[in-house]
Design brief:
Distance between the termini: 63 Å
Number of domains: 1
Number of strands: 0
CATH class: Mainly Alpha
Order of helices and strands: HHHHH
Helix content: over 70%
Radius of gyration: 18 Å
Shape: elongated
Number of helices: 5
Bound molecules: fe (ii) ion
Strand content: under 5%
Largest sheet: none
CATH architecture: Up-down Bundle
């Protein structure tokens, strides 16, 4: 019965959500790296791809702490955010605004992750899952650092390039 569901059920559900999301992100990042025009953008997406692999492994450790199988649960939110990113890649292909668009999509992904990890860390604390907290915090810190790097990249070059006059 739904009435008996508690915070541990929510925690497990949300853990499955972010596990699914990270796996989708792992697949999306190499595509974004290929699409990016700037070398810094490409390198940044590839670096975060490697970090994401490590994040997935930390999530698997959290499942293990719970004594549960690591299993994802379809997250429509991340599918939608990634689909929008793919739309930008198609519609802005070859245009000066492409990287600014890619960065904005990537930041939507990061903010989704930051929201999820913030919640999971709080709930892990409430549930007394002390060993899960540092694992989740490590992931959160990487997402926050990535978000900041993306902001710098946008401010340093991508936004200015995107404002370039149309050639036609
Ligand atoms: Fe992530
Ligand atoms: Fe991320």
């Amino acid at each position: 019965m739904a009435a008996t569901k508690t915070l541990d059920d929510l925690f497990l559900d949300t853990l499955k959500d972010i596990y699914f999301a990270e796996k989708q992100i792992l697949r999306a990042l190499p595509k974004m790296a290929r699409a990016a025009q700037s070398e810094e953008g490409k390198a940044g997406f590839l670096q975060h791809r490697d970090e994401t692999q490590g994040q997935i492994e930390r999530l698997e450790q959290v499942f293990e702490l719970l004594g549960k199988a690591a299993r994802g649960k379809t997250c429509e939110a991340i599918q939608g955010i990634i689909a929008e990113g793919e739309e930008i890649m198609e519609e802005f292909k070859g245009s000066p605004a492409l990287d600014a668009g890619l960065i904005s999509s990537a930041q939507a992904v990061e903010h989704y992750e930051i929201a999820r990890y913030g919640t999971l860390i709080e709930w892990a604390g409430q549930l007394g899952l002390a060993d899960a907290v540092p694992l989740l915090q490590a992931n959160l810190q990487e997402e926050e650092a990535t978000d900041q790097k993306l902001t710098q990249l946008a401010k340093a070059s991508a936004n200015d390039k995107a404002k370039a006059k149309k050639s036609a």
